[in-house]
Amino acid sequence: MDMNKTLVAYFSCTGTTRRAAQALAAAVDADVYEIRPQIPYTPADLDWRNKKSRSSVEMNDPDFRPALADKNAAIDAYNTIFVGFPIWWYVAPTIINTFLETYDFSGKRVILFATSGGSGFGKTAAALKKSLSPDAALVEGKLLNTGLSPADLRAWCQSLAL
């Protein structure tokens, strides 16, 4: 088993984070894993203006953990795992906490990336750190919104000493 392999795991509802994850994986020759909820989100679920929408209810409860569709990510096979997601309410969707709490990331390097319509990472990394194994290394990473070329992505990864 090649322990130097890299995984790009991502959660995406609208395709924006999926495109960023696929571009990143192609740029660094990484495997890809989609973090999927057991119950897919509908457009109505994602309506942040509706306080009763599924995403609004979940994000108002920091302890809520949506169930995963599967637990098939081969985390043990990787030492570097990029974890990508859209920024929701200035943090990661709680399904990212579910993902990080489902697997043992001990000794792994977890590098976050996100897509966002306007907000930055804020306190996202600090909030997710609590969901990781204590000896996992968490790197905040960056926003990977549209327009990053493969060369830009490779340069960013080289700056991370990958």
Order of strands, main sheet, comes to 2-1-3-4-5
Distance between the termini: 18 Å
The radius of gyration is 15 Å
In percent, how helical is the residue content? 25-40%
Indicate the overall shape. Answer: globular
Regarding quaternary structure, how should these chains be classified? single chain
- Overall mean pLDDT stands at 91
Strand content: 15-25%
The structure class reads alpha/beta
Order of helices and strands: EHEHEHEHEH
Q: Tally of extended strands?
A: 5
- The tally of helices reads 5
Main β-sheet: number of strands, strand sense, barrel status?
A: 5 strands, parallel
Residue windows where pLDDT falls under 50 for at least 5 positions: none
List keywords for this structure.
162 residues, alpha/beta, 5-stranded parallel beta sheet, 5 strands, 19% strand
